[in-house]
C-alpha cells in the first residue's frame, strides 16, 4: 500500500499525527492542481497558495476525509478547489455589481463559456445539474477540465476505459453547453 494511502487512512481514522506528514507529501501535487484550476478560471485575485490553503481549511476532519487512495483524494481536493474559486467569484461579483444580475453567455462554444469568469456561478450550477444527471460524467469533467488530468489518468482514477472517458467527456460537454446557454 502506498505511503499516502496509509496516511490518508490513518488521518480518516482520527490520527491527528498523520495529517502533517500526509499534507507534506501531497503538497506538490495539490499545488499543481491549484495552478491548473486557476489557469482554467481566468483572471481572479487568488494565487495557487491561497487557493490551496483555503481548500485545506474546507477539507473534512476524521472519517469524512476520502481515504480509499490518493487518486480519490486528489479528485476530492480538485472539487473543493473548484468550490473555493466559485465562492470567490460569487463574492467578488456581489461586491462589484451588487449581485443578482442575470448572466449572459458571450461565446458560442463551451470553451468560450468556461473561459468567462463571470459565468463561474452558472458553470457551478450546471456542474451540480450534471452531477445529478450523470455522476461519472461529472467526475470526468472535474478531473479532466478542472483538475487538468489526462484522459489516461482520468481512466485510471475512475477505473474505466479511455473510450468511456472520451464518451463521458463528449456527453458532459454537450450537457454543460446546453445548460449554460439555456440558463
TrEMBL record:
Keywords: Sigma factor, Transcription, Transcription regulation. GO terms for molecular function: sigma factor activity. Signal peptide: none annotated. Pfam families: Sigma70_ECF. The keyword Cytoplasm does not apply. It comes from the Bacteria. Residues 1-177 form the RNA polymerase sigma-70 ECF-like HTH domain. One of its GO terms (biological process) is DNA-templated transcription initiation. Belongs to the sigma-70 factor family. ECF subfamily. This is RNA polymerase sigma factor, TIGR02999 family.
